[in-house]
Structures are given as structure tokens and as C-alpha cells.
Here is the input.
Amino acid sequence: MSRLLDNRVRTAYRGIRLKQQRPQIAQHIEREFKLGSIAARILAARGFKPDQDLKNFIAPSLKEGLPDPRKLKNLDAACALISEIAASGGKVAICCDFDVDGLSGGAQANHFLTAAGVETRVFVPDRFTDGYGLNERLIKAAADWGAKLLIAIDYGTRNQKEIAVAKALGLKTIVIDHHHVGSAAPGADVFINPQQRGCGFAGGILCASGLVWYLLVGLRSKLPRAANLDVRSYLDLACLGTICDMVPLIGANRVIAKRGLDLLGTTKRPGLVALKSVIGINGEVSCSNVGFGIGPRLNAAGRMVHGEMVIDLLTTDDSELAARVARQLNKLNTERQETELRVKEIAVEYIRGSGYLPSGLVVWDKEFHTGVIGIVAQRLVEQFYRPAVVMGLDTDGIFKGSVRGIKGFSVVEALEACAEHLIKCGGHEGAGGFSVEEARIEAFKEAFEAECARRLDSIEVVPYAEADTEAQLEDIEMDLVHELEQFAPFGMGNPGPQILLAGLKVVEVKILKNAHLKATFSDGKRYLAGFLWRQTSHPALNVGATVNVVCKPDYSVFNGQTEIQANLQAIEKAA
Here is the structure.
């Protein structure tokens, strides 16, 4: 399924369509929940009814919105093993991944167990020397430190060999992971993964940091010195991984994210206070603040140097140390942004140079920084809406690759179909990683493109933009914006409200910072500024043109003045 590639930035959508409207249900929601008409129509279009599920959605609570921890397969066994090790005075090694999910999970476990009197230490792999996943160097370091128990967080499901090494060194092992489970379990003493057969806990959508939070809930009654610890106070850390790992923000994840964001707004953790200060976040913290502010800076450590500094930041009680690390992370994030932009520009040039848009994008270069290949793969997906692979040189003759997918495309299944060409691979539905010998890259590219072509036959590769409801420009007021904030946090599985505004005239178009578009629209009476992020052109945005737009209403505050604006999702020329 290759096609000629034009030179325009991808508009992403073939057109706009309105979701099925359910006016009677919307009226019931409006009346029973005392909402405005537009808010009620959005909820009805998303399948809600005026029932307990909607009540839990609007006002998620820990008591009503979270499943019983006892239903998480092997949680009791994990708590019993940790309790046994702690009672004997044994040390616990926490080995976690170097992304936000792994690091926030590792920070939770380390802080809680330390507070409960258990001697712990966190071991984080080095992206550049260890690569992804649990590895023998970390295991041997944990054994040399004297650990009796190793807890692997956000990896381990596919580390059968490494778990065997840990056991041979006399370590008990617990794996807490959420990645795809293959034909063989990791062989750990305790395996916690909602994807494993016979589990499916919370719909199988929790990430590692969410699962670790459940571990703390279970441990509170098992460790004598943990009885007075408030597990709710760890939701600020749990929500970091939940939001940044882009798991669906529904069900238990919505509760964790919502309550965690509330805590982040008033957090006393020196590290988070310092990081918020560096970023300029004051007062309430939004999902966007985490996804585009806090998260990238935490990830920058593992991408550019080493993730252990994030553990220091999230667990320290020293405000001066926290301020130093926060400044360093901010600087690293700037370096990461510059590196990402360079790699992306080269990758896009490769794709455009071919003249064709294949079903799967595969680009590689020895000079690509392996710390940013995952982000660049995501940027390629956003621009071309195809599964994307980006590879950089890891060690002599070995390339490391990151994969990102599109809706309806399983990255991990596609990688498994190409596994004969790879040294190792892993991941989940939307993202994955692998290692490959340089000599096998062309064979892998051919196999991956063929697998994508096969799978994309049944997927809309140029999808429609779906609007929740239609409104008039005069409806977009601050009261509506504030009412829609009840539906936050927004993210995967719960996108921001998408409102169709039809028949607007384009009054002005500007490029901001050579990176984004700002357009001003009018219905002849009112004006609205709309922003199209990470795009500098759009074929429908011409001054004087009449367009239909799908947008999420928002607002900005500048010099004390509040102004309504819109984040643009899709734009089409009006008929």
C-alpha cells in the first residue's frame, strides 16, 4: 500500500464527520447532572448515559472508581514475599526502566519501602551501555550490594534469561510489568502483569506506576511500620507514569490521574516543587503540564545521560539538591529538543526523498541519537500517519530501534512477525523497541513494510476527524470552557472535547516560532484564535477562505487578561 508522496505537510484527516448524536439521552444528562446543553451532548455522543458510570467519570473517587486490589493476580504473593524479606532484615533491589513510568514506579517503591524500614536501593539501566530491559549488569550489581530480593518494574516480562541469572545468584524476584506477554512467562517468583492469562485486572490498562501503587496498597497492611503511611500521598508519583506512558485515561487510570494531579498542585515533595518552579507551573497542574512539561524533563535524563538522577529528584528531602537536579533536567530537555529536531528533519528528508509513502516507515542512520529515536518515530506518525521505525547505532554493528503505531495497529504483534530478523524485541500495542544487526536491517525493513501493508488493509490510514457535537462561535464562552474542564484529565482514551464550528471565515494566519500556526476565525460578529501545534502550513488555511474546524475550546492568561482560544484538531474547506 505505497502511494505517491506530495510535498505538503499531512493534514491528517480526509474530512470531518459528526459522531452519532443522541439528543434524548443528552437531554436526560443535561437535566439530571445539571450540565449545559453542549457538555451534555458531548457526553451522550461518547456513549455515556445518566447513570453511575457517568457519575464516576465526572467525580472519580478512590472508593467507587478503583477495583479491589485483591483481584490483581499475584499481588498477595508479592506482598507476602516482600514482607518475608523485610522481616529477615533482607535488602531489596528495585530495578526500573529509565522512562517516566519506570522511574515514577521505582521512586514510589523506594520511598515507601524505605519509610517502612526496609533497606532498598534503586538500579536504573544506562540507555547507552545497557539498552532496554533488565540486564545482567544490574542484576550482578544488585547481588554484589547484598540484595535478597529484586523487584523489576516496567520490564521483565520477556527477560527469562536475566531472571534465571538472578535466581542463580540467590535472588528472589518479582516482576511488575504491563507489556505484552508472549508464550512464556518470565519465570520470576512472583509475576504481576494484567496482560497475563487469568488476570485482566482493571481492564488490563494500568501501567507500571499504577501497578506499583496497588502494590503499596497491599503492603500497607503487611509491613508493621507501613501501617501509618498514607498510600494516597503516592498518587502524585503514580499519575506521572500514568499520563506520560499514554495509557487510556479511563477507569482506574482516570482516578489515579485525577487524584494525582490534585496532589501535584499542592505537592510538598522538594523535587516536584523544584521542577514545577523551573517550568513555571503555579497552582493547579493539568494533564498538559505533565505531558508537555514535567514528563519530558524527567525523560530527558534517561534519554541524554542517566535516569538515576530522576530517582534522586523524586525521593529527596533536600530542597537544594532538588533545585540543582531540576535545573539540570531543564537543561537536558533543551538539549533533547534540539537533538530531536535535527534527527526528525533528517528522517523526514529521507522519507520525502523516496517519493513514495510506504505502509510502514523505516529510517536509520548511524548518527541518530538513540535517546530520541522514540520521540522522532512518534513525530513521523503524527506527520504521515503510518507506523514508524527509527533506528540509531547502539554498539559496533548493532542498531537500536523504536517503533510507534497508529490506531488499530499492534506494534508488538508486528515486531513479533519480523522477529527472525531481530536480536530481541518487545513492547505493547502502541509502541515497541528492538535491536538488530546492521547486516539484517534491509531484510527487517522489507519484512516490516510487508507486515504493515497486510495489517493496514483493514485500517483507515487517512481517518476522519470526529466531532462530538456542533456549536456556534457565540457558544464558545468561558462558562463552557470551565464546564468542560470537569471531563479532564484529557489524554489517551479520553481526548479533549471536540466541537465542530462550521462556516467560519479565516481572517488571519501566522506562524509562531517557526513551529506552530495561529489562525483567527470569524463568523461575522465574533472572533476566535485557533492554534495548530507542530505544523507551519495547512492547505485549507488561506485568508478569506471559509472553513469548518474541529477544536477543543481553551483559554490563555496574559498580563492578567483572560482570552478564549481553541486548539485545532482538524480543518476543512467549507462546501
Remarks:
- Confidence is low (pLDDT under 50) at residues 1-11.
- Residues 319-354 form the longest helix (36 residues).
